Amino acid sequence: MIPRIVFPHIILVLAIMVLWGNWPMEAVSPREEVRIVAGGDVMLGSWVEDVVRAKGWSYPFLQLDSVLQGADVVFSNLEAPFGREDSAFEKTFTFQVSPDLIQVLVAGKINVVSLANNHILDYGPCALSYTMNALRETGIYFSGAGQNLTDARQPAVLQVKGRKLAIACYSLTFPEEFWATDSTAGTCFPSHTFFYRDIKKFKQENDLVIVSFHWGGELLNTPKEYQVQLAHQTINAGADLIIGHHPHVVQGLEIYKGRLIAYSLGNFIFGSYSQRAIRSMLIKLYYGTAGIKQCKIYPINVNNGEIEFQPKLLQGEDKIQFINELNSISAELNNQPLVINSAGFIEL
Fold this sequence. Notes:
Elements: H1 7-19, E1 34-43, H2 47-55, H3 65-68, E2 73-78, H4 102-107, E3 112-114, H5 124-138, E4 141-143, E5 145-146, H6 149-152, E6 156-160, E7 163-171, E8 186-187, H7 195-205, E9 208-214, H8 225-237, E10 241-245, E11 253-256, E12 259-262, E13 267-270, E14 279-288, E15 291-301, H9 304-307, E16 312-313, H10 316-331, E17 345-347
Parallel strand pairs: 1-2, 1-13, 2-3, 3-4, 7-9, 9-10, 10-12
Antiparallel strand pairs: 1-14, 5-8, 6-7, 11-12, 14-15, 15-16, 15-17
């Protein structure tokens, strides 16, 4: 039997062990990795609308379960507003999507979208406002556009597995009338007067900062010089990852200061039968205590004449050919050879 006088000492020792984290009965487990999937341009109007109404909201994603399953963040560019507006901006192509098709995003587990693009104002500020409200009501985060420039500058901020992620989106595409001002709605053009200061602030306030740009030339598989310069300067300011959209085709990958730059992911779910944009990719990234240290490329077939708005993972020789071509167009962007292995992995 332990003498009664010893009990206070035992209690004191146990209290110290708990306070200092030395309690032997329960090990402290490390925080889980955050899994992020980034996809290309999503435009749910035109021919795709009839297909998903007939086959179900989840139809476009049925071949991608192995990629999307378990993802904490699924990010894409929303290339068209939701709404029923009648008056369109005068330009060659204008897009608008029936409001109920927002359920396609939900079915695909897409929980963050960029609104910073050259179509989100196709049907004016009312359609933009409707789109933002619909996304909020559905629980989908967004960045890149707003009722004014201050609003459009705000990143989407997510709390995931004990970490704070900021996703900030910007458009460098025309028409210039779509760019938000202090008093008008629109997209966020990354002006040097605030952009780098904002990125530094986002990094101070968050664990991970992802920046998305709508930029470059349509159907070009290499970035323009300004894209490379802007990407480098953005990483210098604090960004951890850069994701690009707009060309509709894949552009090369670059590793700069240990950070990944994906200049263009190509199309994802896009209402077009164009034969000039038939291959694309998803990127899956694993973010942990040491930052983003692993990335996997998933080449996909987006030739809607073959897959009818249901992207399929490339397999066999098609996958190898895609990865070889991606390695080739990435080579000139990197001082050190960038190697994407046959399984699609890049070690950062």
